[in-house]
Design a protein that fits this description.
Elements lengths: L5 H19 L2 H8 L26 H8 L18 E2 L5 E5 L4 H6 L6 H12 L7 E5 L6 E4 L2 E4 L4 H18 L3 E5 L1 H8 L5 H4 L3 E3 L5 E5 L2 H5 L4 H23 L5
Parallel strand pairs: 2-3, 2-6, 6-8
Antiparallel strand pairs: 1-3, 4-5, 7-8
Length: about 260
């Protein structure tokens, strides 16, 4: 029987390592990341941390916003210009939650100040709700994006990133204690309800989560802006108004619901 040389064994192991590296960077794993898998093609072992590790002991909207500026609860801070925390009335009866800051919000440091924010302002005005009476925030506080030419294109945050950021949202709600939370889009709805939501089936309804929050789900204004036909945009805008009126009617007469 011939004995395998030590050098041959080492060579074999090196080849195995090389093959393993190629598998780890395969298109299969890139596709898994695009589909929302927590496992990424270039991932390294991560510590189990979240925004909870950065919450201040004394909690007000000001202290939360200041603490969030140093949050490292997930990796999204690395490519973002800054943390974009919620803004609005500390005694707001309505809290509106979007998905994440966009390009304009990331540069300016304020939520819903881009095209989607302007459409939301118009909708609030049309149903006679003043924006200054509403608290507006996002499920994720950093902008996730990918470079396309000169533009920074939005990328949907992964579920683990939404979960990592949720302590900030929960802390905001505990300080404000709103009468109703309006979820703008599926990511915000999933963050609040803890389950996958179909906007087409749940929109305009008053729902409850395990924390006892009253929640209304509707479309994100940016989804309206992405529609190609003017007639489609107008139809969806009117449906957005209808959903917000459900919230307004509830605030006027909560016992009727």
């Amino acid at each position: 029987m011939q004995r395998r040389s030590r050098s041959g064994g080492r060579s074999h192991r090196k080849k195995a390592v090389a093959v393993g590296h190629l598998v780890g960077t395969s298109k299969y794993n890139v596709r898994r990341e695009a589909m929302g898998s927590a496992r990424t093609f270039d991932s390294k072992p991560r510590l189990s941390i979240s925004a909870a590790d950065f919450l201040p002991a004394e909690r007000s909207l000001d202290s939360l916003q200041q603490a969030a500026e140093t949050c490292r609860g997930c990796e999204l801070y690395k490519n973002a210009t800054q943390t974009v925390f919620g803004e609005g009335a500390s005694n707001a009866r309505i809290v509106m939650v979007g998905e994440q800051p966009g390009d304009v919000e990331d540069r300016q440091g304020h939520p819903f100040v881009g095209p989607a924010g302007r459409l939301l302002d118009r909708a609030l005005s049309d149903v006679e709700i003043r924006r200054k009476d509403v608290y507006i925030t996002n499920a994720v506080k950093h902008f996730k994006w990918i470079q396309r030419g000169k533009r920074r294109m939005h990328q949907r945050p992964l579920i683990r990133q939404v979960i990592a950021c949720k302590p900030w949202l929960r802390a905001e709600l505990l300080v404000i204690r709103p009468a109703v939370v309006v979820c703008l889009g599926a990511t915000a709805a999933q963050a609040m309800l803890g389950r996958v939501i179909l906007i087409s089936k749940e929109r305009g309804k008053l729902l409850r989560n395990q924390s006892g929050d009253t929640i209304c789900v509707t479309i994100h204004p940016s989804a309206i802006l992405r529609l190609r036909e003017e007639s489609q945009r107008e139809r969806e805008y009117q449906r957005l108004l209808s959903d917000i009126r459900v919230v307004s009617d509830y605030l006027d007469n909560p016992t009727a619901q």
